[in-house]
Amino acid sequence: ADTAELVGQKLNEGKTKQIFELLDQPGLVLVQSKDQITAGNAVRKDQMEGKAAIANKTTSCVFQLLQESGIKTAFVKQHSDTAFIASHCEMIPIEWVCRRVATGSFLKRNPGVKEGYRFSPLKMEMFFKDDANNDPQWSEEQLLEAKFCLAGLTIGQCEVDIMNRSTVAIFEILEKAWATQNCTLVDMKIEFGVNVKTQEIVLADVIDNDSWRLWPAGDRSQQKDKQVYRDLKEVTPEAMQMVKKNFEWVSERVKLLLEPQASSRVVVLMGSTSDMAHCEKIRKACTSYGIPCVLRVTSAHKGPDETLRIKAEYEGDGIPTVFVAVAGRSNGLGPVMSGNTAYPVINCPPLTPDWGSQDVWSSLRMPSGLGCSTILSPEASAQFAAQIFGLSDHLVWCKLRASMLNTWVSLKLADKKLQACSL
Hints:
Blueprint: E1 7-13, E2 17-22, E3 28-33, E4 36-39, E5 44-47, H1 51-69, E6 75-80, E7 83-87, E8 89-91, E9 94-101, H2 105-109, E10 118-128, E11 137-138, H3 140-146, E12 149-150, E13 153-154, H4 157-179, E14 183-195, E15 201-204, E16 212-216, H5 227-230, H6 237-256, E17 265-270, H7 276-288, E18 293-297, H8 304-315, E19 321-326, H9 333-340, E20 345-347, H10 356-359, H11 361-364, E21 373-374, H12 378-390, H13 394-422
Parallel strand pairs: 17-18, 17-19, 19-20, 20-21
Antiparallel strand pairs: 1-2, 2-3, 3-7, 4-5, 6-7, 8-14, 9-10, 9-14, 10-11, 12-13, 14-15, 14-16
């Protein structure tokens, strides 16, 4: 209640939420959920006690996962049980739908396609937000011709490409996360906005149990999402209890998506402390993926017994480990480690201009039975370690996936900027 007077006028109201300005925080808004559930363009509409809190909890967790992965979103932080704070955006009036499995309206629009057909790559669809016409499906051409202008940004080919790519990446991240709970993310609807302050396109609106289809163990009969409500023959108190149970199940489960599924560790071994700067780059990059990184000094030439003792220490505590060997001149460290451990070893030699082209062969030409890889860039060696851990820990994988998207978007925007200069 003490923040009540800081909430300004209502900026917008939808079927399930209200948006308020925040007087003390310009550029930010309050997104307040309502205890209402609707289906079929609000043809069916019911109060569901506690829905606001359930939806808010769900969307806050989902946005936290995406935010921590590195996806740009409007979400700032959860404010209360039923509201969160977000950047003020002008919304792009399109629902971006991404599908892994064919079901629902896709089957009606594409007769002959059986339910369960899997899309690889993912299937993207767009629907124009227009209640009067039941949100018609739009083509990319229609979207481009609409020439939407929001917060001073005109939605052209570049912006559409960015939103398309982002939708796919966001789906893949949430799909990977839900798979840890043995749930299939079947399809999903998201919306984008243009941040009023930065003119950046960001994931906005909400992602909650109204936004997707979720099938535990890939089994439609166990569906946990809003489809359960849409499918009700008639709305009875008992039926609404069942719907609420499903929504609660999802809001509890979604918290688990933020938990790492496996432990991981990178151990960087350096021949001497003169390689410290090189190793610090590896550690910094590991930290950005959320992977603990330990630095040790040992020389396989001058103290092989100590090298093997250090190796045994990290093999013996059960934490999955990738070793990175950093040794200049002749790299004895990586090959000796690689021949004596079943864990992966990455050589990351700090090459110098004078002898580098000779020295590198000590990391490349191995006796038989050694499987170490060699990566010259310290950041790239950490990335490769992250890719290994990403196979078993979705949080690491999600950071890699978001980073790939962000790199792609940066190139796209750099090209747009250059074209604008050249005109």
